[in-house]
Protein: F-box domain-containing protein
Organism: Acrobeloides nanus
Amino acid sequence: MDSIPTEVLGHILSHLDKPNLLNASVTCTKWQTLLDSDLPQPLELHITLDSTGCNAAVCYRTDYDTSITICQCHEHHSDQNIFLRELFRIFGDRLRSLTIEDSLYNMEHEERVTDLSMNIILRECGQNLEEFHLSLVDLRSVRPWTLAQFGKFHHLTTISFEDCKFPAGMSESLLLRILTPSFHSLESITFTNNELISDKFGVAIAKKCHRLEHFVLNSCRRITAVTAVAFCEALVQQRISPTVNLYLQNTAFDPLKLQQFLLNPLLSCGPCWIAQGIVVNIGFDRNALLLENKVERSL
């Protein structure tokens, strides 16, 4: 290939469709330079970590539907990280949504995302991300200060950690600190089945995230009615979002305890709230608790 004149090679590559253009661009620097002006730049990227994904490739359908599958095995780890680095350099700051899904499964060797791979993802992806989703990602091999790079994002509207495992040195305080730059813009926060999350986290979010509309804490066993009370207090203060949906299934939340808190004379806003049980249909009936402010009817 080195003997082919640049003009001829450029003409050949120009006939590739968009999915193959992206794959060709990470082959070598020369090809990337030739294709630079023609490369698609997706707005959304889905990364799947899979033990069978040893032959990394980009699956491009549209700017809103682009995915890659990579492994984390020792044999291909170095090549996969180079692939990731080059891919993020191509996408630049155009990327708005990033999803990482962990499907790693190896009976012989326990595989999980490495610190180096996560470092490359967080370091190289653009700073203009608005949505970051992690699903079933085992982060126990990732250093807490690597995850601290979440602090580079200043415009996140959605952050989601669904059934993820955090490293041993991770704390709620550090987690809150790295999310602080996006507190002003966050509209949806999800942490499920996470032993790290407690009322300390819930209360801080209630006080700081004034645009928040959805707060999902399902199966976070350390969450109690205290988090709900914190939102009752925050909602009567100046907020851009008048309604917050709290998802507290399989937590330590107790509606009777919430009622006791609201009736406590030390809670100035307590008498303002009326609680009633309702049934919400989300494809099936789900019991829910509606809290309505009888003073500010917009809440």
Remarks:
- The first helix runs from residue 6 to 13.
- The chain has a mean pLDDT of 86.
